[in-house]
């Protein structure tokens, strides 16, 4: 989870954001080299004495500063397109979860094993403080009465749509953000490497209850996920 005053990426369990972090580091390395070169060049221009004051052209220099930026852009564009393609690639997902946005709750469906359908509503402060609930020390405005459950170390496809207005299914710690649009099915794949409890919220202003559409996903190992599917009522 993000902490106050952080200026770095959070420790994510998602392979998608891990690849994006690698691309960020790669791009920053290139930008650092370019910036260092320009700083050295500027210092040279300030301290050196000018020569060749009557030089009219330099074919080699002009060719160099035309081709070199093109080469640098190619080295940046290729991994960028690769990761963009990788983020949308879905060869054989192990689990497909359907998410329906509604005012102001979420509906989840898991139909790969057997038909599992449930709604997830926001828990207010009074409900969180009820001793019969297991969320006594939960996060305000983030806890739900029913959590979505997904397996770790599996390719997961999340399909999102809406029943009324435009919503947005967003879980920052899993690098997930999919718009829920009525009449349109958007999807995204993810691969989660660590178990845990991950929170998100609707990221599209969808009415008076927009602030009360939390997302709570419980990521567990495959064996426990199979038990959950078998015992779900």
Automatic annotation (TrEMBL):
Transmembrane segments: 23-42, 63-86
GO MF annotations, alphabetized: copper ion binding; cytochrome-c oxidase activity
Domain Cytochrome oxidase subunit II transmembrane region profile: 1-91
GO terms under biological process: ATP synthesis coupled electron transport
Cofactor: Cu cation
Compartments where found: Mitochondrion inner membrane
GO cellular component, as recorded: mitochondrial inner membrane
Listed InterPro entries: CcO_II, CcO_II-like_C, Copper_CuA, Cupredoxin, Cyt_c_oxidase_su2_TM_dom, Cyt_c_oxidase_su2_TM_sf
Reaction(s) this enzyme catalyzes, per UniProt: 4 Fe(II)-[cytochrome c] + O2 + 8 H(+)(in) = 4 Fe(III)-[cytochrome c] + 2 H2O + 4 H(+)(out)
Domain Cytochrome oxidase subunit II copper A binding: 92-231
Record membrane topology: Multi-pass membrane protein
Keywords assigned: Copper, Electron transport, Magnesium, Membrane, Metal-binding, Mitochondrion, Mitochondrion inner membrane, Respiratory chain, Translocase, Transmembrane, Transmembrane helix, Transport
Cofactor binding comment, as recorded: Binds a copper A center.
Entries under Gene3D superfamilies matching the protein: 1.10.287.90, Cupredoxins - blue copper proteins
Entry similarity comment: Belongs to the cytochrome c oxidase subunit 2 family.
Subunit architecture: Component of the cytochrome c oxidase (complex IV, CIV), a multisubunit enzyme composed of a catalytic core of 3 subunits and several supernumerary subunits. The complex exists as a monomer or a dimer and forms supercomplexes (SCs) in the inner mitochondrial membrane with ubiquinol-cytochrome c oxidoreductase (cytochrome b-c1 complex, complex III, CIII).
Function recorded in the entry: Component of the cytochrome c oxidase, the last enzyme in the mitochondrial electron transport chain which drives oxidative phosphorylation. The respiratory chain contains 3 multisubunit complexes succinate dehydrogenase (complex II, CII), ubiquinol-cytochrome c oxidoreductase (cytochrome b-c1 complex, complex III, CIII) and cytochrome c oxidase (complex IV, CIV), that cooperate to transfer electrons derived from NADH and succinate to molecular oxygen, creating an electrochemical gradient over the inner membrane that drives transmembrane transport and the ATP synthase.
Name the record gives this protein: Cytochrome c oxidase subunit 2
Organism name: Rhipiphorothrips cruentatus
